[in-house]
């Protein structure tokens, strides 16, 4: 394990996809028309036909009784995010044994969640939805909207990382510095996120975390009262504006 | 997008429905079907189904806190049986209604029509879409709806709370909604035509004789479809497209050049199915026919609200049998028609158009009339009429037997050339009375049986409680026994050393002395 480099051996080129068991795209909507704000986030299956987008937009507007001007906006927003995703689709990305830290810091209705854990990027069988379901079950979260929010947050971060690895793959090909240097290059560029397994496990060869790191990695779930929720919302709005 | 199959093979003929009822009542929640349509003559649960389900619920006590009450209304035309099952979770008895064509639903399994309608989860194309995931989504959606069954749940609420991709969730949601497992509050929901067809097929599959007249649908079907283009009422067929959320009448569809003809589904609308014939309307129809005979225009006017075609189709589909509690109508009708039959011999040679439709009465009457000759048949008809009017309109239950019995009697009488109207009348009246008596006795017996079974059920419940109490007492007794034993044991233990000591001290005392 000591001489095993985290990057070197199993570096292969794979077609771009979200590194989870199902290739779903996280979509985030934040639309404002006439002072009415609509924020939402969900996962989309990119293999659905495009007509689905309009159907979904109409359905959402109807269910939430939003003014019909939202329909086109929603549909457009979804479409742009989808096309962006698709633009990456043909390209290659590197996968290696990379373990990345994922941070959760979100507020859903009355629940505040903070968490920090490691996720293996190489595992194409991983399932953020499953993780989210288990999280809610273990932490006894009753609000059913939290699960999807967690899954989406994880997916978004994975998506970003995947995108980064695509760009790095492109760059390393452009920079014709030979193979080894290329590896280093990409390693240093994208390695900022990843955790060096060698360093972690190398010395003590124990899998248990050091005690002082325990509270960093512990999940925190807070239930907020109404006033706190309002205060937080006001702060968020101010930040955004 | 799940392509809604236009006319799928009927998933479940009613005859096999008895099985899924017991399957569907899994330990967790028993839901049940009640077609809450108000006064449809002959709703889906007709007498045979009711009897079957009654026997099921009484003999199969798999209930964990389900109380089944069956009210079998065997004879009357109007209402269907309701079997409310109480949900075990909530304290008050919630009744979940689902249409009977969805009774295949079970929490733990996937039925074949689900595989058909939502195939993406079952064809193994994508690894994350498998039956387990499908079941999870489906059960989550249904559970969420049932938390508040009075309120229709929207897709957006659902998808916010379920972890997964929204496209598949939407498809499952649509599927469940179309099949009435969600948001089925029985009110005017526009349904697809294939649903009506299926329920009709199911009704037809029951027994020919008892088939509900015309529209035995178990869902109060919607208003007419409006074309979104020309805003006219779609009459025969309309083209519905979910993708563009439009409904077009046939004309607009043909005229406009709509791309992707595959998006549009042809939806047949038959006038009959849109509205149910109430008893009152049927009565009016019969009266009108009696008065106006062949003049369907006048009949349609008399009935009010029905076109000629509807009247004709409905009349043609009427079963002349047990369904009708208004005996004078049908008997008179038969005779009236047969007399009409005769008065226009040139038009109606045998076989008359009515006999083609396999009404036993009509066939018999027409056959007899041709057999016997015009004049004799007229006389017989008149005699029957006078007999009826003489007896007045009591509670005569008209049945096939009566008419055929009367017809047969008439035939035999005529054949034997005894032209005695009085005896015929008497015979007719006697036969009718007997039948009536039998019917009444039957009803009493049935209700008696129902009452008895109810009593027995109650007694069983009481005995169970007693048993439970006895068991408890027994256990207490056992505990007391155990304690007693322990006491005895310790006592005996203490006794023996005490005795020894006593012995010693005595011995010592003796020695000392």
TrEMBL record, chain A:
Its main location: nucleus. Keywords: Nucleus, Transcription, Transcription regulation. It is found in: Nucleus. InterPro entries: SNF5. The keyword Nucleotide-binding does not apply. One of its GO terms (cellular component) is nucleus. It comes from the Eukaryota. Belongs to the SNF5 family. PANTHER family: SNF5. This is Chromatin structure-remodeling complex protein BSH. It comes from Abeliophyllum distichum.
TrEMBL record, chain B:
GO terms for cellular component: nucleus. Residues 274-311 form the HTH myb-type domain. Residues 269-319 form the Myb-like domain. Residues 272-323 form the SANT domain. Residues 96-193 form the SWIRM domain. Residues 1-13 have a biased composition (Polar residues). Keywords: Coiled coil, Developmental protein, DNA-binding, Nucleus, Transcription, Transcription regulation. Residues 428-483 form a coiled coil. It is found in: Nucleus. GO terms for molecular function: DNA binding. This is SWI/SNF complex subunit SWI3B. It comes from Abeliophyllum distichum.
